[in-house]
Amino acid sequence: MPVITCIEDLKRLHQKRTPRMFWDYCESGSYSEQTFRENSSDFGKLRFRQRVARDLTGRTLDSTMAGQKVSMPVALAPVGSTGMQHPDGEIHAARAAAKAGVPFTLSTMSICSIEDVAAHSPEPFWFQLYVMRDEDFVDAIIERARAAKCSALVLTLDLQILGQRHKDLKNGLTSPPKPTIPNLINIATKPRWAFNMLRTPRRQFRNIVGHVKGVQKLSDLTAWANEQFDPKLDWGKVARIRDQWKGKFILKGVLDAEDAKMAADAGADAVIVSNHGGRQLDGALSSIRVLPSIVRAIGDQTEVWMDGGIRSGQDVLKALSLGARGTMIGRAYIHGLGAMGEAGVTKALEVIRKEMDVTMALCGERDVKNMGRHNLLVPEDFEGRWA
Which of 91, 96, 228, 266 could cross-link 345 (Cys pair, CB 3.0–4.6 Å)? Predict the structure, then answer.
């Protein structure tokens, strides 16, 4: 077993052990992938202020996110097809998150269903909703999330129209993969993945198959999904879903201060600054560069979280120092999952926790809630000067 000291170690193992189409699905963005790359690289423009001769005993990363106690201000973001990165992947991730004391968010486009995860997770989890044209499906899945005792609804706003990801099209991405000769040859080089995938019945989008009239097999599902993301999603529909849910309500996919104000006015308990991991509007700013403007716009009204490009505990602290009250990680834990299943997600969270603790201490802080702009050196042009 290799020594794992950082997320990059897990990333290498993930690539080695997972079929190419699912690795590419994780590690890619839309069009030129500029926004995908800058989500991570822009963190490197920020610098910490080192402080010394401070009492560093009794350090804590404990916090809250939307009123929920967390062991660190980090939640596992919703990631579609997680159960293709590792068999029963959503179940493994939910268990690891519960053990670590952080929230797990299940995607609408998950392989394991809401009911699958509820039956195996020791703690309540959050559910992420994509708004579909089929209102009966939307109403039903919200009720299924309520019945499963999901503790928050995360409504994604930035997928009304599906962005183009070149690698997914070239790979012919499907869940499960079609038995083409190139796919079978590639899967043959991943024997552990193939063996474990054969042992589970969870190999398609179980939140959808069997829950939508006429969708019983892969070809039905593909046609349905391609037509279903709702281009008419507006603030009126957001309000309707909020009123139907009535619980903790989180809005994800905001990248503009004006939209952030609308999201806060819509009654969001938290607003997540996110560009869908660089998978939607290529050429948009990175989440970390947009974060300060949204904190200024609504930080006194509701919690502002950040998602996108986080690959370390240091990245988490930089987001908190720029005003985020919480963060979400996607690829960082998916690399752990693809590398080693539940143990890999646990390792990813342990890596991030240790990096946060050590870096916070070297910044002279004992409580993560005290991290702020005073802990960072920020370039004057970091947010950009736009005509």
Answer: 96
